[in-house]
Amino acid sequence: MAKYLVIVESPAKVKTIKKFLGKNYEVAASNGHVRDLPKSQLGFNAENNFEPKYITIRGKGEILANLRKEVKKADKVYLATDPDREGEAISWHLYHALKLQDKKVYRITFNEITQSAVKASLKNPREIDMDLVNAQQARRMLDRMVGYRISPVLWSKVKRGLSAGRVQSVALRLISDRENEINEFIPQEYWTLEAALHVEGEKKTLHAKLDSKGQKKLSLANREQVEAIEQELKGADFFVTEVKAERDLSDEIHKFSPSEIVCNEAFYMSGVDIEELKERFGVSVSALDSHFFGDETCRKILKEHYRVGSLAGLGLDDFDAGVIAAGCVMQYLYETQKSTLEHLTTITPYQVGQFMVIDTSTRRNLELVETLREKQKRGSLLWVLDKTKTAMGARLLRSYIEQPLIHREEIYARQEAVQELNMNYISREEIREYLHPVYDLERLIGRISYKTANPRDLLAFKNSLAMIPYIKNLLNEFSSALLSQFEEDLDPLEDLKTLIEEAIIDEPPVSIRDGGILKDGFHEEADKLRHAK
């Protein structure tokens, strides 16, 4: 009957493995490495392709002799040393030290000492992996190259007996480089933006730190950048639509790039691949309780929020599913934001067929708003066209590119407005000049509604409102239907501008807590409290 020899590293494994394999198998241990480079010399020829010189480790002669006896009895030899770089090298050394060239030799590995794992390894033998062996030899030679040449320097300069190996030397280099960086460091202003988020069902607050936008890592160098991003995070657009196919749903999700999708349990059972949605769009999907999706509840909350007696006034008559979705989102925001959501003053229903349907792959290949490879705006169609003066204009232009019009009358109206602006260079440039100092009014309104605006936000709001009468006056010179409608709809809000102008000093502090915000004479009681002793 055939006889098989299994060689492992540790003698502690021998008895257990032999019990698994039975009487046809002999199990022996090498007790770790059996060969190594000689201690008294470098052990390899750096001038001859780093040819190593190996010798038997002192004390391993008897072990090798016993292993050779077992090898002679065996028909097959299985090298079962540990499944790592050192284990692979030990198997290679055993192969040469035991002169197994004329034997049937197999390399097996297992990650656990169980009967199933050991027997499975015997069914999947392989050859010795020389890449792992060479990696171990390179590490060993590097130890010698560094240690044998640098250690004597330490003995003469610091203390005899110290060792300078590959790890210590690299660590010393890292420390040295770091010390040089510290000495050469030039202090620079930097900011971080963190948010305290409420997670439904959790008592603890989730603290998040802004790291990147899309694929681009963000570096915040001043307060203005931080405030601009903070305002951008507090958007107030509320759109409603309905789709009938999974592909249309995918296109809408790609168009808006949401950070979170809320749905009911039925959506999970609908056959839509939720995991694929998460991975493809980098979005979290949360299933809410059924009470969020009650038809009457959703209609009631939308009517109360927008103060209307009928949803027809909001344009939601033909959006049965859309009403439930919008009402669900509104409830979810009320519960998570702990706010009245006063900045959500409008809701915009739209039909998917109202705009050209551009599927996900087409958007990506046409590089409409970001490049195909770098995922950046620079180099995209949006980057070429974007000459806008305000953040609001930039967002509007992006929506125009992502949602092209398909109805001829709307296209002609927009073209007529563009042509008229193009032909009236002076008026167009004047409008651009007046738009330049206008802050992001949509975001400022959001901050004011959330009651997080500071005095300087209100001044920015006032200064932006001051531009509206001039823009409105210039729009009055145009005759195209779209621009005329813009002029008619534009409210100068002069009462708000006047109120802020009369109330707040010209250079207020950043924080309300600092005080000294209101002008003298604006509020009698405030004047008394300010001057009270």
Descriptive overview:
By secondary structure, the protein is of the alpha/beta class. 49% of the residues lie in helices and 9% in strands. The strands form seven sheets. It has a four-stranded parallel beta sheet, sandwiched between helices. Strands 3-6 form a two-stranded antiparallel sheet. It has a two-stranded antiparallel sheet with strand order 4-5. The N and C termini lie far apart (109 Å). The model has no long low-confidence stretch (mean pLDDT 85).
Number of helices: 23
Residue-averaged pLDDT: 85
Strand content: 5-15%
Please report the total strand number as a whole number. Answer: 16
Taking all Cα atoms into account, the compactness measure Rg is 37 Å
Biggest β-sheet: strands ordered side by side in the sheet: 2-1-7-8
General form: elongated
Taking the sheet with the most strands, its summary is: 4 strands, parallel
Q: Which class of secondary structure composition applies to the elements?
A: alpha/beta
Intertermini distance:
109 Å
Percent helix range? 40-55%
Provide tags for this entry.
533 residues, alpha/beta, 4-stranded parallel sheet, two-stranded antiparallel sheet, 23 helices, elongated
A few lines on this structure:
With 533 residues, the protein is of the alpha/beta class. 49% of the residues lie in helices and 9% in strands. The chain has a 4-stranded parallel beta sheet, sandwiched between helices. A two-stranded antiparallel sheet has the order 3-6. The protein has a two-stranded antiparallel ribbon with strand order 4-5.
